[in-house]
């Protein structure tokens, strides 16, 4: 019985907590709130576009349409760096999820 009262009190307190200004949802330029899923999707799409652009640069170089190896290498490194960053963010998100799932409530 005591555990039930404590649990309900904790739930009540958790519902009363407001997010601090730093923790509130991200405001977009239009003023609407962007969800975490939308922000993540946009970031993944940006990485995908960077990879596609790099691939096009490589294809142009291979086919002889472009002879600027410097731009090709920069494009490839930019794509690699953005992909590596995306993988690290994913790893950190998975690690955080696993840590939260191990917490005892």
UniProtKB/TrEMBL annotation:
GO terms for cellular component: bacterial-type flagellum basal body. Keywords: Bacterial flagellum, Cell projection, Cilium, Flagellum. GO terms for biological process: bacterial-type flagellum-dependent cell motility. It is found in: Bacterial flagellum basal body. Its main location: other. One of its GO terms (molecular function) is structural molecule activity. Pfam families: FliE. Belongs to the FliE family. This is Flagellar hook-basal body complex protein FliE. The gene is fliE.
